[in-house]
Amino acid sequence: MRDEDGLLELGLMRTVFDSLGAGVFVIDTGGTLTASNPRAQQMLGRSRDQLLGHDLHDLLHRRKDGSTFPRAECTVLAVLESGRPDEGSDELFLRGDGSLVPVIWAATPLRHEGRLKGVVIVFHDFSLHRDAAEQTAAHLAALEGLTARLTMVAEVSTVLISTTDTPEMLNRLAGLLVPEMGDWAVVDLHTSGEKGGMRRVAARSMDDPAAAEALTGPLPPLGESPGSAGVQALRGFRPVVLDEAALAEPPDTPLAAAHRQLFERLGGRCGVVVPLHTRRRVFGALTVARAAAGASYTEAELFLLADIGRRAGLVLEAAELFEQQRHVAETMQRQLLTPLPQVDHLRLAARYRPAESAAEIGGDWYDSFLLGDGVLTMVIGDVVGHDLQAAAHMAEVRNMLRALAWDRTEPPSLIMRRLDEAMTHTSDAPMATCVFGRIEGPEGGPWHFNWVNAGHPPPLLVTADGRTRFLEEGHGPLLGLSSALNMDPGWPDARTELPARSTLLLYTDGLVESRARDIEAGLATLRRHASDLAGLDIEDFLDELLARIDPSGDDVALLVLRVPAAGVGAGPDEAPPQYAHSPAAPDRGAPGSRVEGSPVRDTSEPA
User: How far apart are CA 208 and CA 454, in angstroms?
Assistant: First the structure.
């Protein structure tokens, strides 16, 4: 029975050996193959006779290029020397057809009665595992590349919206692309003044910043020739790749020569010229280059640069529209900055400061003119809204007020009522605030201010010794509110004496209110500064007041009156200054009154 049990056990072990799903070798102490199972023969494409009796290392073990290598470097045979189990991966065995198969293996010393008889080697085809690992690595590399590109796009987007100063924005963009996308980067733009004119507005270099900066400035015009890659990009909507062959071609236009100078001064073996464009227009071109031998740009990098070009083009278009809208709105408002009349040594001055954002240009205005009876008026107002339409409505309301008031001697409250009715029934202008007042008194004074206030911040009266008082009287609802509330509003008239050498200031809410400061704090600040500046000439008074308060955000209009000293008449030795500029003929007063101009400053530019 023992012999039968032994035979059964031996048969079972043979079945396991032959059926095992892994390749199995047995080698003797000399490294010769003494046994192999069918799976090993299948993986290697060799029969049993082609394996047994051959040296394992010499027959199967190979480098990646298919060459043999010394037995001393064989990790499998090392198990014979150490007598300890070992394992490895990505070893290469030579198949019968000459191809190589990567294997993962484990080798265990084979001992009998305490003596080393050989080594048992179990191995698997590692190609599937290696392919999966390589595919995973490729996916991870692609994911890292995509993450890097998305990070670059996010950073570029942040730079493009970081400032409304176009040259500064493009200089930041060029700096962001160096060195990630090239050793240097420059941006060339079409200029608006000259047809075909070009200008290099940004240049950044990793190795020679000074040389890059020296290459900025005016460029030759685009010209009519198809020209180099730079010219082609400025005429089209796709990036143009520059390799060494393209860089070796002689330039055929002055602009192409200027573009070639970049590579001569800053170096570069390859480059990409990317148009900065929208669907309708090319605004300029971005050039990036790499100086290393054999450098190139991948398809992913070209796609990223093209996307940056489109994004920059959209921002440049938005900036251009922004400036156009600002110019139109400011031009409209400047046309309404009429010369200020002067009557009997009453001095007037005004300031207008546009909003910081073109979207917020609009409704503020001031005005002063002589009525038919020779009385001087002062007007300050603000139409609801902050856009170009608000500026148009402001002009409409201003002109209606002039037309309704100039030949009237009735109280300001009745003029305000007429204006409200006109806005309600003949205009689509929205609600507005307004202070309308008459400066009344005999020649030489005393002078009085007779006014009405439709929802506007109160005028500020500053005496010569710095005492201040807000004129809170005469306050009524906004203009245009009667139709919304279905009511008949009333505006009470108010009257106050203007002391000799006092200053009367009318202003819009942009001077005293902002997102960072409520109107109560703003009024207190205005009162304090106006008191400190009471002794200044009114031109200096306004300039210093704006400098101290430094309003931001909304547009601001100011109108100020300086009352002469008591008994001072309109003598020839004390004539007020003439017009600094005169977009329209000065108003003319009643017979016997003298009307001359006063400077009117627009603080959108330094005075």
Answer: 63
pTM of the model: 0.53
What's the CA gap between 114 and 522, in Å, rounded? 100
Are 33 and 48 contacting, i.e. CB atoms less than 8 angstroms apart?
A: no
| Residues 282 and 234: beta-carbon distance below 8 Å | yes
Say how far apart CA 468 and CA 475 lie, in whole Å. 19
For 324-340, give one letter per residue: b (16+ CB within 10 A) or e: ebbeebbebbeebbbbb
Interstrand relation of 33-36 and 347-353 (parallel, antiparallel or unpaired): unpaired
Q: Tell me the CA end-to-end span of the chain in Å, nearest whole number.
A: 121
Cα–Cα distance measured from residue 96 to residue 105, given in angstroms and rounded to the nearest whole number: 19
Q: Render 513-552 in DSSP notation, one character per residue.
A: -BTTB-HHHHHHHHHHHHHHTTTS-HHHHHHHHHHHH---
Question: Which residues are bridge partners to 282 per DSSP?
Answer: 277
Contacts of 367 (CB under 8 A, 6+ apart): 336, 338, 377, 378, 379, 380, 381, 398, 401, 402, 559
Residues pairing with 288 in the sheet: 185, 272
User: Which H, E and C letters describe 290-309, residue by residue?
Assistant: ECCCCCCCCHHHHHHHHHHH
CA pair distance 376, 347, nearest whole angstrom? 11
What are residue 560's DSSP bridge partners? 349, 505
For the chain of 607 residues, list the mean pLDDT of each consecutive stretch of 10.
56 72 91 92 92 93 90 90 88 91 91 89 82 69 72 81 85 91 93 75 93 91 66 78 86 84 91 90 92 89 91 89 73 69 86 67 84 92 77 85 88 92 83 94 87 96 97 91 66 95 95 82 95 96 94 85 79 36 32 32 39
C-alpha to C-alpha distances, 96 to 17, 154, 231, nearest whole angstrom: 22, 55, 60
